[in-house]
Design brief:
Radius of gyration: 14 Å
Order of helices and strands: EEEEEEEEEEE
Number of helices: 0
Distance between the termini: 41 Å
Oligomer: single chain
Largest sheet: 7 strands, mixed
Length: about 120
C-alpha cells in the first residue's frame, strides 16, 4: 500500500516563506507526475504546481515566480518552496502523485493528508 506523508506548512506573515515536503512510502516501482494542490474554505481544490518525472514544471499563474516545485526521484519526495506569500495563499495544501506500485502494470493517483498554510496580513 502506498501512502503520502506531508510535512511543513504553518503560519507566516505576508511576504514570508514556507517549505512543504511530501514523501511516498510503500512498495513503489516508479512515481510519475508529482504535484501540489490547495483548497481554501468554500473553494474548490485547485492545482498549484506540477512536475513530471523528467523535471518539467507547470505553475498556476498566481504563484508563478514565487513558488518552486522540485522532486527527488530516488527518495520519492516532492517539495514546494513558497516565497513572497500573500494572504490569498492561505489554504490547505495537498500533495498528489501518480504512483506505479510494485507488481502493478499501471499507476494510481494518491493524495497526502493535507497541511494548513496560513498567511496573515
Amino acid at each position: 500500500q502506498v501512502q503520502l506523508v506531508e510535512s511543513g506548512g504553518g503560519r507566516v506573515q505576508a511576504g514570508g516563506s514556507l517549505d512543504l515536503s511530501c514523501v511516498a512510502n510503500g512498495s513503489i516501482l516508479r512515481v510519475y507526475t508529482m504535484g501540489w494542490y490547495r483548497q481554501a474554505p468554500g473553494q474548490q481544490r485547485e492545482l498549484v504546481a506540477q512536475i513530471t518525472r523528467g523535471g518539467v514544471t507547470n505553475y498556476q499563474e498566481t504563484v508563478e515566480g514565487r513558488f518552486t516545485i522540485s522532486r527527488d526521484n530516488v527518495l520519492n519526495i516532492v517539495y514546494l518552496r513558497m516565497n513572497s506569500l500573500k494572504p490569498e495563499d492561505t489554504a490547505v495544501y495537498y500533495c498528489n502523485m501518480d504512483v506505479q506500485a510494485s507488481g502493478r502494470e499501471n499507476y494510481e493517483t494518491y493524495w497526502g493528508q493535507g497541511t494548513q498554510v496560513t498567511v496573515s496580513s
